[in-house]
Write a structure and sequence with these properties.
The chain is of the alpha+beta class and 397 residues long. Helices cover 50% and strands 19% of the residues. The protein contains 9 helices and 10 strands. Helix 2 packs antiparallel against helix 5 and helix 6 runs antiparallel to helix 7. The radius of gyration is 32 Å and the shape is elongated. The chain starts with 10 loop residues before the first helix and ends in a 10-residue tail after the last strand.
Length: 397
């Protein structure tokens, strides 16, 4: 069993230790460690600073058990011997329901205590528990048990636990916000894919159905009327449309799982996608790149997605035989251009089918500026300029 902790927050030295441990907990949260790692830092500090033999932190789930249950003061072998996680009953359930601190000199004397301990569970006597709260909502609890020095837990111990409970709230709230942001990102990506599927595939499938029905009607007429040749022409058109729909669908599916940018680099990953998309559409794609300053994973992913969508729009709408993609970097910015010499359009009059709102939203979300230059018969250029954060060093592609 681990040492029950020797640094109790009494006197100036104890105050310094409290501040040091609180600082460690804050740094753990701000370093974006996993939630489990942050909670373990908090529980370890709680046990040591309160002078407890055991400490734990529980976050309930919606099935009567716990999504997180972090303990300190017992070995890994002992923890495994305890078996499955506890349920939300007894004193644990009281802390979750009432959301108030609990300090008892002997838990066995409290009428809310539900009998003995399970096999392999340590015998707990004096306990101290504080809720982890976000406003009025109880996110979980921290508790300490069996003060090593005897005499039970003090009001000062309760203050220390409450302080760490506040940092646990920050960690859990950040985790919840991150999960919500991830789900929102998934929903936005689904919306983009739905637009792509509607614009690129469903309209072609509708045309295929119309032409197939026309061919069926023509084929059923008198062969001498010459409609058989027209029916054959319609069927050839159906085959061509089906091929286009297949190519469009393949390009959309490719967009579902972009390559891992960290493996091939931004330029390498984008080059592979550009050439693949060009082959799928039967359009030549020229790709050029230079050295890039580092952008960070999130901004590289955003730039990749913007380039992907701009290229897809050019391949699908421009009618050009060739599309050019260029990516270059300077000390303070990275510039992306996707251009074609196709039929062009009036950006101010463009419908949602060209994905301009999505492009602009992605650019704004990544702190970049986006310019779309186009006119009927004069082609289109999409130009994105993404600033680079301070302190970045250049790296070769």
């Amino acid at each position: 069993m681990a040492d029950p902790g020797a640094a109790h927050p009494d006197g100036a030295a104890g105050q310094d230790e409290v501040l040091r441990r609180v600082s460690a907990a804050v740094l753990a949260v701000t370093r974006e460690l996993s939630v489990g790692d942050v909670l373990q830092v908090i529980v370890r500090s709680v046990r040591s600073l309160s002078g407890a033999r055991y400490a734990a932190l529980g976050v309930p789930d919606d099935r009567g058990s716990f999504a997180e249950f972090v303990v300190d003061g017992i070995s890994d072998r002992w923890r495994k011997a305890l078996g499955p996680l506890p349920r939300q009953h007894g004193m644990l359930g009281v802390m979750l329901r009432e959301g108030q601190p609990i300090r008892l000199s002997d838990i066995r004397d409290d009428p809310r205590f539900e009998g003995g301990w399970p096999p392999a569970h340590p015998d707990l006597v004096d306990i101290l528990g504080v809720p982890i709260k976000d406003g009025d909502r109880v996110l979980g609890f921290i508790f300490a048990a069996n003060k090593a020095s005897g005499g039970g837990f003090t009001a000062r111990d309760e203050e220390v636990l409450a302080l760490f409970a506040a940092h646990a709230t920050i960690a859990l709230t950040n985790a919840r916000l991150y999960e919500q942001a991830r789900q929102l990102s998934v929903l936005e990506e689904r919306a983009r894919l739905a637009r792509d599927l509607h614009d690129a595939v469903s309209q072609k499938l509708f045309s295929i159905r119309v032409k197939a029905r026309a061919a069926s009607v023509l084929a059923g007429r008198d062969p001498a009327s010459g409609d058989a040749d027209r029916a054959a022409a319609e069927m050839e058109s159906v085959a061509a449309l089906a091929g286009d729909a297949q190519a469009e669908l393949r390009a959309v599916i490719d967009g579902l799982a972009p390559p891992e940018i960290s493996e091939g680099g931004l330029a390498g990953s984008l080059r592979r996608y550009a050439l693949l998309a060009g082959r799928a559409h039967g359009v030549r794609v020229r790709f050029a790149s230079g050295d890039l300053p580092p952008l960070g994973a999130d901004r590289e992913a955003a730039l990749y997605r913007i380039a992907q969508e701009a290229l897809h729009n050019a391949l699908r709408h421009s009618g050009a035989a060739e599309v050019t993609v260029s990516l270059c970097g300077a000390a303070r910015k990275v510039t992306l251009e996707v251009s074609d010499q196709g039929k062009g359009f009036v950006p101010e009059l463009a419908t949602g089918g060209r994905g301009l709102p999505s492009l602009r939203a992605r650019a704004a979300g990544s702190g970049a500026s986006l310019e779309v230059r186009s006119a009927p018969g004069q082609g289109t250029t999409v130009r994105l300029v993404m600033p680079v954060g301070r302190g970045g060093s250049r790296r070769p592609l």
